[in-house]
Amino acid sequence: MIDWLANVRRSISLDGKLAVEFRSLRLFHVLAQTGSFAETARREHTVQSNVTAHIKKLEGELNTQLFLRKGGVRLTPSGRLLLAHADNILAAHADAVAAFQADTMPSGRLRIGSMETTAAVRLGPVIAQYHERYPKVGMELKTGPTAELCEDVRAGRLDCALVSGPTAQGALESTPVFKEELVLVSRQPIADVFDSAVLADKPFVAFRQGCHYRHQIELFLEARAIHHVSIFEFGSIEAILGCVRADMGLALLPRSLMRGRAESNALHITPVEPEIAAVETFLVTLAGRGNTQAVECFLDLLMEHGAIHDHEPDGRRRNQRAASAAVTA
Fold first, then answer.
1. Which of 131, 210, 227, 253 fits as disulfide partner to 329, beta carbons 3.0 to 4.6 Å?
2. Which segments of the chain belong to CATH 1.10.10.10?
3. Category of 25 on φ-ψ map: left (φ > 0), alpha (ψ -120 to 50) or beta
4. Residue 42: C-alpha distances to residues 48, 58, 69, 280 (Å)
5. Is the CATH number of domain 2-104 1.20.58.220?
6. CATH number of the domain at 108-173+287-318, out of 3.90.1640.30, 3.40.50.300, 3.40.190.10, 3.90.950.20?
7. CA separation (Å) from 31 to 1, 56, 66, 267?
8. pLDDT tens digits, residue range 142-155?
9. What is the 3-state secondary structure (H, E, C) of the chain?
């Protein structure tokens, strides 16, 4: 690996610095093998846009074009040079992992809690890859609102939970893993999302009390001085979307959830102000107890996927981990 870094430094200068993210290198290696962005995304349990983002990031870091994209995906001379070194790096990594895996492979049971929307949008690829890497771990998944999931972690009924909302004093440690943007979902187009008169007579459909997204609805209405609006409670995403489709009310849901669903349900999405729209998803665990190996491996994988979704290097989110409190409703 030192020889590879030296070779690249001799041929490519980035103001004396070189920072190649391992995840980007792995996606490059798979893309070189498959010749297809779509197939690479399928193999790596991610989406095609994330593969594209990582390849562009890698090309920017190395200041060179790695693939020709006309008439298929083919390696450039620089790409072939990088591939030779990538083969060695990934093989060395696999050997190092194998040397320790026999003693460090997690096992047992991992009890995960998640908000309904996060489970629907984010967890499928994560759980599939986790099972592939750690087949000795049995997984259980419970969905529910933030407040309920936090209480389950405190009580020891869950090992960890994916929740949203501000932190306050309590017995939980939280780590940010995903960023979401909430959008207004409606059956009919909303002419002006800031016009109280347009919105005053429209009820909302939401998850039950304890869901942070419901709290954002209340802030949305408060910012427009809209009072006494009905908020109908439902327990599933499909029920909420069904009611919006029937023009029963409006909803605030993550944009990531609505990709594909808006068109298939003939629904409209409208951006709202950033202070309402921007929410983070955290993994919470019981503070002061120390995480099991199964939880730590799950967190590492979440950080990896979270970095891809947010187009940030894996290390940046790792540095954000801090002991904090329970997440409020």
1. 210
2. 2-104
3. alpha
4. 8, 20, 19, 26
5. no
6. 3.40.190.10
7. 21, 13, 11, 35
8. 999 998 999 999 88
9. CHHHHHHHHHHCCCCCCCCCCHHHHHHHHHHHHHCCHHHHHHHCCCCHHHHHHHHHHHHHHHCCCCEECCCCCEECHHHHHHHHHHHHHHHHHHHHHHHHHHHHCCCEEEEEEECHHHHHHCHHHHHHHHHHHCCCEEEEEEECCHHHHHHHHHCCCCCEEEEECCECCCCEEEEEEEEEEEEEEECCCCCCCCCHHHHCCCCEEECCCCCHHHHHHHHHHHHCCCCCCCEEECCCHHHHHHHHHCCCCEEEEEHHHHCCHHHHCCCEEEECCHHHHEEEEEEEEECCCCCCHHHHHHHHHHHHHHHHHHCCCHHHHHCCCECCCCECC
Q: What is the pLDDT of residue 73?
A: 92
Q: What angle is formed at CA 268 by the lines to CA 121 and CA 191, rounded to 5 degrees?
A: 140
CATH of 180-277, one of 1.10.10.60, 3.40.525.10, 3.40.190.10, 1.20.1270.60: 3.40.190.10
Answering whether pTM is above 0.90, one says no
Q: How many CB atoms lie within 10 A of CB 142?
A: 15
pLDDT digits (tens, 9 = 90+) for 183-211: 999 999 988 888 888 888 889 999 887 78
Instruction: Judge whether 149 and 113 are in contact, CB under 8 Å.
Output: yes
The residues of the chain that CATH labels 3.40.190.10 are 108-173+287-318, 180-277
C-alpha atoms less than 13 angstroms from C-alpha of 298 in its C-beta half-sphere: 31
User: How remote is the C-alpha of 216 from its chain's centroid?
Assistant: 20
Tokens of 297: 């491996």
Q: Give the amino acid at 104.
A: T
